[in-house]
Amino acid sequence: MTECTYCGCEVEAHDPVVVFESAPDAVDARDGSEFAFCNWGCLSAYSTESDVATGTTCNWTPEP
């Protein structure tokens, strides 16, 4: 059983979302911490309440 990082419920009983936080020198995105959430709602609430997105930025370049 995997508990939701946000609410503690069993993620397998829902529509889980798994997030990997990798180190800058990681070869694979999964080389680091894993966070599991019941669904997008728990991930969103966790992100808002813990302020983890402050100061971050995404770079995306569309392919022609």
What secondary-structure arrangement, pairings included, does this model have?
Elements: E1 17-22, E2 32-37, H1 40-50
Could you explain how this protein is built, in words?
- With 64 residues, the protein is an alpha+beta fold.
- The protein has a domain at 11-50.
- The chain contains one helix and two strands.
- It has one helix spanning 40-50; strands spanning 17-22, 32-37.
- The chain has a two-stranded antiparallel sheet.
- The termini are far apart.
- 12% of the residues are buried.
* Percent of residues in β-strands: 15-25%
Main structural class: alpha+beta
H/E series: EEH
Which term fits the overall shape? globular
Could you name the ranges where pLDDT drops below 50 across 5 or more consecutive residues? none
Q: What is the CA-based Rg, rounded?
A: 14 Å
So how many helices?
A: 1
Distance between the termini: 43 Å
Provide the helix percentage. Answer: 10-25%
Write down the overall mean pLDDT. 83
How many E-type strands?
A: 2
